[in-house]
Amino acid sequence: MSALVICTTKGSCLTVMAASVTMYLPTHYTVYLSGSDMIFPRHRTINLPNNATNFGDAYNAAVREAFISHPDAIVANDDVVLTPYTHDTLMEDLRIIPEENRGWVGARADYARGLQNIRFKQPGDGNTIRHASEQKIIEVDVIAPYFAYISRDAWVDFPPLNWYSDDIQCIDMAKKGLKHYISRAYVHHVGSQTCGLDYEKCMEEARPWIEQNRPELPWFKKS
Fold it and tell me: In the chain, which end has fewer C-beta atoms inside a 10 angstrom radius, N or C?
């Protein structure tokens, strides 16, 4: 693996994210950075325009560009911070998870949904500084790819949405027989830097596309 794909708009957290990549990501990676002219000092950086109006279209374009030269990639939000162990742990997990039918393999974080959130206590976790479950690779239906591995063969485009784009993509990948996993790897995730904290607004913006294109999905169904 040798590509890291990042899309940004405001870039308010990008400087800190870039510092962690510079320190903790092996230098053989090429960084594909959409929406900023920043150059990562220790990594080959390919700067791309970001003319998209939503998360899905932005990452579709940037990931496709990376896949021209690379068979797989790590996809990352611009507001995550790597630790000294993030990359190595993710690589260890990729050697454990069967390559056949492997979809997303995503990191845990402190700002994430469900089991990807390290604060989520699972059966068997005691009152320790770290949950025992953090050392388990977990198969799940949906991954939030704020820092996640994906192969070119497994890739399916995101829908043109901000919210629910990852849910729908994961569902589409599952239809191809692919499985998604939560890695033992961890990143700090600031969260809500692109779409903001008005969750009701984000949901309503996604409603028309989902009702028109994926009416079978449970979200927003009229009673």
Answer: C
